[in-house]
Specification:
mainly alpha; 9 helices
């Protein structure tokens, strides 16, 4: 009697190890970039903070009720609506809390900035995967540009919420919705124009995939960088009760 050997887990283990190695490299790059420019970035944002805080609170109070309307909630299932939902700060709050709690338990000795950098690195890798997937078949790469932008926007919104939670701010507060838009405004205007301008080049075999991966990852880093600067300067002159 012959027995069938159990399926090998070696490929899965290799994939997991490769992902962990890539994550560590990404984390190291993000840490260096973020720490080197953090002081300058905080100095700039601290000047803008008195103007941004009232704006984000007002926008959040307006956007919150709109985002909770039934037809907006229903739109969550429509892929083409992901950019709008991300702009409204429509994220899974319980998932955000769970992910931050897991990160804190996994790295209990790390400070807020280091934990936020881990979130940035992880999100940048996911965005790079989106860029690879949507540029895998060059003839349809241009048609998938909106899908790409929507998926990356959703990742960015979730990242901002997680960074806010790491820095002690409630993910359920309407201010977070206004902050998503403010941080995008600070970080993504130029980067978004670059992304749009490269969408034609992304149909070029080989080059397209590289550009898609690089631009999506850089978009995420720029948003994460400004989110860290925003919440670090916000903590230095608190106007909101932290949790």
């Amino acid at each position: 009697m012959t027995t069938t050997p159990p399926p090998s887990t070696e490929p899965k283990d290799q994939t997991r190890e490769t992902f962990q190695a890539v994550t560590q490299v990404a984390q190291a790059i993000v840490t260096v970039l973020d720490n080197v420019t953090a002081t300058t970035g905080n100095a700039v944002l601290s000047r803008l903070q008195p103007f941004l805080e009232p704006m984000t609170a007002t926008v959040g109070s307006v956007v919150g009720p709109i985002a909770n309307l039934p037809f907006i909630q229903y739109a969550t299932a429509v892929p083409g609506m992901r950019v709008l939902l991300a702009a409204l700060g429509q994220v899974n709050v319980e998932e955000v809390r769970s992910q931050v709690d897991e990160l804190r338990s996994q790295y209990p000795l790390e400070g807020k900035r280091t934990l936020a950098q881990r979130v940035m690195a992880e999100t940048a890798l996911k965005a790079a995967g989106v860029g690879l997937a949507t540029n895998f078949v060059p003839p349809v790469a241009f048609a998938l540009t909106l899908v790409d932008i929507g998926a990356v926007a959703a990742l960015q919104a979730s990242m901002i919420y997680r960074i806010a939670t790491i820095y002690g701010y409630s993910p359920t507060d309407h201010d977070r919705r206004g902050e998503v838009l403010a941080i995008w405004l600070l970080s993504s205007t130029t980067a978004g124009m670059v992304k749009s301008g490269l969408s034609i080049a992304e149909v070029i075999p080989g080059l397209g995939a590289v550009l898609g991966i690089a631009t999506d990852a850089s978009l995420v880093y720029s948003v994460g960088y400004f989110a860290c600067r925003y919440y670090e300067t916000k903590r230095s002159a608190p106007t909101e009760i932290m949790v």
